[in-house]
Design goal:
- The chain has 190 residues and is α/β, with parallel strands linked by helices.
- The protein has a single domain (2-189), classed as Rossmann fold (3-Layer(aba) Sandwich), CATH 3.40.50.150.
- It has helices spanning 2-15, 34-41, 93-106, 121-138, 149-158; strands spanning 24-28, 45-50, 64-66, 79-85, 107-116, 161-168, 182-189.
- Strands 3-2-1-4-5-7-6 form a seven-stranded mixed sheet, with helices on both faces.
- It is globular and about 40 Å long.
- The termini are far apart.
- Residues 11, 28-31, 35, 50-52, 54, 69, 85-87, 90-91, 99 line the site of S-adenosylmethionine.
């Protein structure tokens, strides 16, 4: 599907510059696994975890594991880079900090986060609709916040990261029909 391919390449254009040859990568909340599959194609050693199995056939069994959404049963610093791409707004607010702490535990060097980061009323309206439909789909009343860029920056600093890159993505670069504000954060573990 062209839009899936476009979104995958868009995500990769922010992830790839943070990678070094030979990096071991963990993709938390890998979803359908298109990003993961492409990174495997690049020659990286990559593993994906998610709370549901939405994998497309391109993602091999050995590169994926279901987990409980809180604890990945692997030792500290098992990976060089951990990815959380468009995952954190699907995580209830009270579980966001524990999940970022888990990502920090698992990475040796870098955490890459892509997020919807509302900047104006229209962004907030879109996030609100997206958040409400997600809550309805999974049958919960928990609060799933979409934070603005500055709030995520502070959030990551408070959780033991230095912000190497915090960049607002061009609005129309990912999806011309849904030009919502999004950001890329490249975070170094302190
Ligand atoms: C919008 S999809 C993003 C998929 C993929 N990362 C991407 O960029 O295409 C959000 C994913 O987050 C997953 N997710 C939600 N809560 C999670 C958690 N606590 N741990 C890991 N994944 C989670 C969902 O199951 C879903 O696959």
């Amino acid at each position: 599907m062209p839009s899936v391919r476009k979104e995958t390449l868009h995500t990769l254009s922010y992830v790839r510059p943070a990678l070094e040859p030979g990096d071991r990568i963990l993709d938390i909340g890998c979803g359908d696994g298109w990003v993961l599959g492409n990174l495997i194609g690049d020659g990286h050693d990559v593993m994906g975890v998610d709370i549901v199995d939405l994998r497309k056939p391109a993602v091999p069994e050995f590169a994926f594991a279901l987990y409980d959404g809180e604890k990945v049963p692997l030792p500290d610093a098992s990976f060089d880079v951990v990815l959380l791409t468009f995952v954190l707004h699907h995580v209830p607010n009270d579980k966001k900090a524990p999940l970022v702490a888990e990502a920090r535990r698992l990475t040796r060097r870098t955490l890459v986060v892509l997020e919807d980061t509302p900047r104006n009323l229209i962004d907030r309206w879109a996030c609100n609709i997206h958040g409400r439909s997600h809550r309805k789909r999974i049958g919960t009343t928990a609060d799933f916040g979409f934070y603005p860029q500055w709030e995520w920056e502070q959030f990551f600093v408070d959780r033991g990261f230095a912000v190497r890159r915090s960049e607002a993505l061009p609005r129309f670069s990912r999806d011309v029909i849904r030009p919502w504000a999004r950001c890329c954060f490249v975070l170094d573990k302190l």
